[in-house]
Amino acid sequence: MKPSRFNYYAVDSIDAAISLIAQQGEDARFLAGGQSLVPMMNFRVAAPTALIDLNGVPELSNVRIDNDGALHIGAMARTRQLETDPEIAEANPLIAVAAAYVAHTQIRNRGTIGGSLAHADPAAELPGIALVCDAEIHLRGLSGARVIEAAKFFDGVFTTALADGELIEKLYFPPWPEQRCWAFQEISRREGDFALVGIAAWFDMDASGAISDCRLAAIGAGDTPLLLDSPAQTLTGSVPSDALFEKAAETVAGDIAPFDDIHASADYRREVAAVLVARTLKTAWERRR
Amino acid sequence: MSDRHNISLNVNGADYSCEIDARMTLADCLREKLDLTGTHLGCEHGVCGACTVLADGDAVRSCLMFAVQAQCMEITTVEGLANNGDLSPLQEAFRDNHALQCGFCTPGMLTTAEAFLRENPSPTRAETESAISGNLCRCTGYISVVDAILDAADRRRDAGSE
Ligand SMILES: Cc1cc2nc3c(=O)[nH]c(=O)nc-3n(C[C@H](O)[C@H](O)[C@H](O)COP(=O)(O)OP(=O)(O)OC[C@H]3O[C@@H](n4cnc5c(N)ncnc54)[C@H](O)[C@@H]3O)c2cc1C
Ligand code: FES
Ligand code: FES
Asked: Do A107 and B61 touch (CB under 8 A)?
């Protein structure tokens, strides 16, 4: 099908984008990669009256790494860049690995990290990575700037804490310790499909060889990406082993609320989540330096 | 309400100007305004890959871009792959390996493969399978398409080393 009519505006600055969207009213939308919005427009599931195209805003594509290793990624950074930029992979290897699971090359060439977060598909990879990395999301609106942690950003299926006309400017990923063990795994029907379930995890070790800090998140396992607190509690303070990872995996069911759809049942997703928690933790451990 | 735009774009090395609605996708503009009907539309929601073109060298879905966004971009469609009517080594490899039957998916397969081989001139079979994972073919199947792309990689290397 074809989209319904809208007015198109190309802007070249954040200020222009936020003042224009305010003028255009509540049915105006930002256009980033268009890889979620345009399919919805073509099907007329979405019919914005105005599109504010962010593709010509250079300041939104900045990627910067601080001396302490913290990573700033502009909202318009393309998924393909996240996948292939060696500097990003060095600053945060989880992002690069997970980005490669997003759709197909042709879609990653256009799709952006800001668009993925704003769209908030519960099975999307990058929101799960933002959550597991405790990323901060920097927002700009007519009333000013604010920073929100990823754990408070996702409200429900396709729903976020973004106010009308508010723009994601960039994501901030805290420094990544060099010795950190990490992995991302997902199961999907075919390569490039949305995940049935995916698990991202990392853990740090103390001098005695026990896990001192860790975080796990699931995608495709509820209305939003979810932090997995029970396996994290099981892991913290213990020495890594396959038995520990299996024990952690057994606790995941209480942290997730998967649903049935045409691709898989909720029961199947629960089972996959447990299998993937164990697998992800093993992969993370095998990768230790 | 109709939001009209005059745009200029470069397609296959030639400059074009046309007047379009903001809501016209790049795919529809290529097909209906520029009469470049090699670019096919299967699903119009990014899934099938038939509409893949190169935008500034990157393979993209032309059903998910608006024509007005292609201002000042260099677009390559399947029509731009041949040189003066001679099939490119990639196109020849598709013909010689029986990599098409009805041909509906072929423009997207070719543009995707062209971008892929530019970036990865000596791919493995697994990398090639992954590269066309976003292109659906409902009649040939994928084995001969993968064979053709790997064959094209050899042909391009041979041509390059001559
Ligand atoms: C066939 C196909 C398969 C896909 N598979 C996957 C997959 O496996 N995993 C996955 O995660 N995604 C997948 N996607 C979606 C893809 O990753 C999108 O790129 C992404 O969801 C949206 O990013 P975008 O830049 O294209 O945003 P757009 O489509 O441009 O925008 C999406 C929404 O976000 C808003 N928005 C965009 N940028 C901003 C901003 N900076 N501030 C505020 N609001 C903003 C827009 O107004 C719109 O409402 C797939 C898409 C297709 C077509
Ligand atoms: S028509 Fe564009 S991907 Fe199917
Ligand atoms: S050749 Fe017919 S769809 Fe691929």
From this structure: yes
